[in-house]
Amino acid sequence: MSRLGDLLHTERLRRNMTLKQVAKLGGVSEGYLKDVEAGTRIIQDDQARRILKKMGLTEHNEVGFSLEDIAATVDLNTTVPKAAPKPRREETEKVYSTSGDDEKEKSVSGSVWLDALSSVLKRVPVYNAVMKEVDHRLVPILDGKIEGASPDKVFYISAPDDSMRGFRIMRDDYCFVVPSASPIDGAIMLVEKDGRRSLRKIKKLDAMNVLLQSYDREYQSDVCSLPDVSFIGRVVKVEFTL
User: Do domains 3-83+110-118 and 122-239 have the same CATH topology?
Assistant: First the structure.
């Protein structure tokens, strides 16, 4: 299945709806919808979102993922086993309350596709220099890790200035940080010195001293004793907007 075909399929099953019901709701043919769910036909993102909304799936769910996020990710077929995930009991059973002779069905929150998605993608926060979240990115999880680190420990830092221009990092670029509490020679790291966090290239001088390097319009360096610097993490990749 494609990412959107898989999403349509799992949401339809979760809501105990037939192909005919969803096709009529979305204004498409039953055969077309069947092919989309099977992954043999391509459906446009806006059309899939329209059908999902008709089915009752809200634009934003309880953990912050949006349908726009899903549309921007890779196909689930390339990252998860082909067998569709089984819904948890609490997601599929129906809860009833009785009032006199009437029975009212209560909707059960949660979504099967979200559970499957959370095992292969991580919502990684983007922080500014004071570690306030300003954005997020969906990042693939491979073998339980992201860039070799725990998915819960990694984050992005938005470059606060142009002090690393000479090292190809500009203001507002998103730098992906993997935690590291020790200096790594030759690496660009997020460090804290005198209560201020910044990105610097590291050069180890000896067992007790390091050189913190920056390069805006000219090269600058600062020799620091290890006890005076806190090393937060290593920058392993940078994202920028054209």
Answer: no
Domain 122-239, classified CATH 2.10.109.10, yes or no: yes
- Decide if 65 contacts 58 (C-beta within 8 A): no
Q: Which tens digit of pLDDT belongs to each residue from 201-235?
A: 999 999 999 999 999 989 999 999 999 999 999 99
What mean pLDDT, rounded, does the chain reach?
79
| Predicted structure pTM score | 0.56
Domain 3-83+110-118: give its CATH code. Answer: 1.10.260.40
Q: DSSP alpha helices (H): ranges in the chain?
A: 3-14, 19-26, 30-38, 45-55, 67-71, 89-92, 112-118
Domain ranges of the chain: 3-83+110-118, 122-239
Read off the tokens for 232.
């937060």
Strand partners, 203: 211
3-state secondary structure of 201: strand
User: Tell me: the pLDDT tens digits for 21-68?
Assistant: 999 988 899 998 888 888 788 888 788 888 888 888 764 443 344 554
Q: Which residues pair with 238 in a beta bridge?
A: 175
- CA–CA distance, 188 with 119 (Å, rounded to integer): 30
